[in-house]
Amino acid sequence: MGIEEYKDLLSSIGVDVEKHAKMMSAGLESYKKQFLSQPNRPKGMEYFDWFMSEIQGERIAEINRLRSQKKPAVGTFCIFVPEEIIVGAGGACYGLCGGSPATIPDAESELPRNICPLIKSAHGFKLQRTCAYTQSSDFIYGETTCEAKKKTWEILNKHHPVHVMNIPHMKREKDLKMWSEEIREFKEHIEEVIGKKLTLEEMKNGTKIINEKRDALQRLDALRGMNPDVIPISGKDGLFITQMGFLDDPVRYTQKVNQLCDELDERVKNKISVFEKDTPRLMVLGTPFAPPNWKLHTAVESTGGAIINEESCIGHRYYKDNVDLENVEDEETFIERLMQRYSKVDCACFTPNTPRIDKILKMYKDRQVDGVIYYTLSFCHTYNVEAHLVTQALEKEGIPCLVIESDYSAEDIGQIKTRVEAFLESLAFKKKAKKFKGIR
Ligand code: SF4
Ligand code: SF4
C-alpha cells in the first residue's frame, strides 16, 4: 500500500496531506536514487526497502492502532529517552523527522537562523504538519542537552505537548541521583497518559525487548566492521538500517536485523564484499544523522571510501550498552539500572567526556580502520568544541582524521566530495607505504 491509502488517517491526525504527499514522493525518489542503485545489496535489505515505502503509511497506522488501545506514543529527538518504559507500557517510542532542509525556512519564522539544522528541521516539520510521527505523538520527549534544544522546547510546546527531562551535564553522585528522579517522573508521566500504574514486570519486559534490539544492532556493527578483509554491506545501508530502528516496531525490527545478519555472516565466511579490495575503511564520529540525512555517506561511498561504523547517536552510541536486569526485584533497583545504562551515553553535552575519547581510540583499533571523519552539524557547539579534544587525541596516536562541518543543504556537496577525495588519496598512499614496509 502507498500513503494514498492512508489519506483519511493522516488527515484525522492533522497532517497537511497535500504537502506531506509531495514531501514523501521527493523522499522516496531520493531513496531510490541513492540506495537502490547500489550493486550487490544483501537480500535482507528488501524488508528495509519495504519499510521505507510504508514509513509514513502502514507504520503510522500501527502506531495509531496502539493509541486507540490507550497505549502511549512518544516522539523524540534524543537517545536519552527511557524507551524501555514506553515499550513496557505496550506503546511506541520513535525518532521524529528532523533531517530535511525542506522544513527549515518555516522554522526560521520562530527560531534563529544560526542554530543547528536538526532542531530547525524538526521544528519546521511540526509547523508544516508534515511529519505523521509528530502528529501521532501523545507528547514529544525533550531534554536539556544543548542550549538550542532546551529553549526550542518552550516554543514547540505551544504547538504540541512536550515533556522535558532534565539531563545533567556532569556525572557526579548528586547528578546521577537527580537523573534517577527524572526517570521516575518520566514513568509517572507515561502512567498519566495511559491512566494506569505500570508494573515492574511490564517495564522489565519492555527492557528485554529493547536490549534484544540493541544486541541485534551490535551484531550488525560487528559484521560491518570487525572483519578487515570483507565489508558485506555498504555504510549507507548500515546507516539506513540503524535509522529505521528508531521508527519500526522493535520486535519485528530485531527479527529482521538478525535475519539480515545471518546473511551477512555467510557473506563474511565466503568473503563477499560490496566494495573492492583495499577500499579505505572509515569510521564517522560526531553528531546524529536524522533521516533523510544521507549526505555524508553518499559523498564518501561515491568517492571511493567505505564507512564501516558511526560513532553517533544514530549508531554505536545508541546500542553499545544494555540495561542490566540481573537481580532486579523492585522498582527502585530497576530505575537505578536504567540510570546506570543511560549515564554511559557519552554525549558531548557532558563535561568532562573523556570516556568518549578512550572509546573512539579503542573502536579505531578494534576495527582496523584506515581513517576517521569527525562530522558535526553546523552550530552544534558541544560536538564542534569537543572536536578539538578528540582530534588532538587522534593526532597523538597518528590516526588520520578529516573534520567536516555541514548542514542539510546541497550547496557544499561538491566541496565535501573534493575534501573526501583528497583524504582518501592520502589514506591510500599511507596504506601502500605501510605495506611496503611490511606493517599494517
Ligand atoms: S548527541 Fe546528545 S543530545 Fe543529541 S541525540 Fe545524542 S545524546 Fe541526545
Ligand atoms: S546536533 Fe548538537 S546542537 Fe543539534 S540538537 Fe544535537 S546536541 Fe543540539
Topology order in helix (H) and strand (E) letters: HHHHEHEHHHEHEHHHHEHEHHHEHEH
- List ligands, each type once: iron/sulfur cluster
Q: Output the strand order for the largest sheet.
A: 2-1-3-4
Which CATH C-level class of the largest domain is it? Alpha Beta
- Strand content bin: 5-15%
Number of strands: 8
Helix percentage: 40-55%
User: What is the 3D form?
Assistant: globular
Please identify the structural class as seen in this structure. alpha/beta
Distance between the termini: 51 Å
Number of self-contained structural domains: 2
CATH architecture of the largest domain: 3-Layer(aba) Sandwich
Describe the structure.
This protein has 440 residues and is of the alpha/beta class. The protein folds into 2 domains: 3-171, Rossmann fold; 206-321 and 347-437, Rossmann fold, CATH 3.40.50. 54% of the residues lie in helices and 10% in strands. It is built from 19 helices and 8 strands. It has a 4-stranded parallel β-sheet, with helices on both faces. One iron/sulfur cluster binds next to loops.
